[in-house]
Design a protein that fits this description.
Layout (H helix, E strand, L loop, with lengths): L2 E5 L3 H12 L3 E6 L3 H10 L4 E3 L2 H6 L4 E4 L6 H10 L3 E5 L6 H14 L3 E4 L6 H12 L5 E9 L15 H4 L3 H4 L2 H11 L4 E7 L10 E7 L5 E7 L9 E6 L2 E6 L2 E5 L7 E4 L15 H17 L7 H20 L4
Parallel strand pairs: 1-2, 1-4, 2-3, 4-5, 5-6, 7-10
Antiparallel strand pairs: 7-11, 8-9, 9-10, 11-12, 12-13, 13-14
Helix pairs in contact: 1-10, 4-5, 5-11, 6-9, 9-11
């Protein structure tokens, strides 16, 4: 049985805890300084220790550390786990800045520990089916696509200290929410040649952007527009399209449709049977986290790269960083 320490008990930790219970893992400790979150964690794993700070939990010994704390803590926590030879699954993003994300991946590599990143949209059936369609050539030669994340968050969401700040989160909707759909696109298509972006804050009470729009340029006239916001009341499911010379795939939430010929009814590749996080982040399905954690645990045991490896997550963060740089400079990056 895999012994797990869960560091952090906020929104993201709940899905991890439920998934670990379903995987029959032993959560030996949960790290949190919040009394309410302590009670919620113990409701899932009544026998777990509740420690603060994280070093106390890591000293107890574990096979795996799930790091679900704010992004600006990830590098130091991976250092602590690496010093003890403990594999890690880190919540997205890797870190608040690209240089810190790169250092985090180096620390794990140099210590020889396993590293996976919680980019769970890669594990959802619609995401896997989309990649299979593209890899099989069923859509023909890639011609373009689009990303849209028209989400909304109530003002109460930003009451947590540091949420939506550059210091704690590294940015706003792009690096915290839209990164999942953007990562899925990049996992399917690979990195673009260059990017262009603009960031703004329309309505939300946050320091960083609540809205971003941009373009991923794949060369040869193949452009992918990107739009993401937390100000699209009342919030709708994220959408991703990939078009080719032989068809278009359209992903919305947990559903994937294929449009093979003009005028024909779309083929339902996967049905949309998961709750939406367009408004409520706690509505995320446990099954995607369970699949990601199961793959990571197996990968570390087998000595292979996990589905959402550190280097692959770093590729996504490089695109995010390039979009922020483009918004800052007003030019292509």
């Amino acid at each position: 049985m895999t012994r797990v320490v869960v560091i952090g008990a906020g929104n993201g930790a709940g899905a991890h805890l439920r998934a670990l219970r379903e995987l029959d893992c032993a959560v030996t400790a949960v790290v949190t300084g919040h009394p309410e979150r302590r009670a919620a964690a113990l409701a899932v794993f009544p026998g777990a220790h509740v420690d603060w700070p994280a070093t106390e939990a890591l000293e107890r010994g574990a096979d795996l550390a799930v790091i679900a704390s704010p992004a600006n803590t990830h590098l130091e926590l991976v250092r602590e786990a690496a010093a003890r030879g403990i594999d890690v699954v880190v919540e997205k993003p890797l870190e608040v800045r690209l240089d810190r994300a790169e250092e985090l991946v180096r620390v794990a590599r140099d210590a020889g520990i396993g590293l996976a990143v919680c980019l769970q949209h890669r594990t959802k059936p619609a995401g896997r089916a989309l990649r299979a369609l593209v890899d099989s050539g069923a859509l023909g030669t890639f011609t373009g696509g689009s990303v849209s994340v028209p989400w909304w968050r109530p003002a109460s969401y930003f009451a947590e200290p540091g949420r939506g700040t550059y210091a704690r989160d590294g940015g706003g909707v792009l690096i915290t929410q839209a990164i999942h759909t953007l990562d899925l696109l990049l996992w399917v298509l690979g990195a673009p040649v260059r990017v262009r972006a603009e960031c703004g804050r329309a309505t939300q009470p946050m320091e960083a952007e609540d809205t971003v729009t941009g373009v991923l340029d794949y060369g040869g006239g193949r452009l992918v527009p990107v739009y993401a916001t937390l100000a699209a009341y009342p919030g709708r499911d994220e959408e991703l399209t990939v078009s080719g010379t032989a068809g278009t795939a359209y992903l919305r939430g947990a559903e994937l449709l294929r449009f093979p010929t003009p005028g024909a009814e779309p083929e339902v590749v996967t049905a949309g049977d998961a709750a939406s996080t367009a408004v409520d982040p706690s509505a995320m399905p446990t099954s995607w986290h369970r699949a990601l954690l199961a793959d990571a645990i197996d990968a570390f045991r087998e000595g292979r790269e996990p589905l959402a490896s550190g280097p692959s997550a770093l590729s996504t963060q490089r695109v995010v960083a390039a979009m922020y740089e483009s918004a800052r400079t007003g030019d292509w990056v």
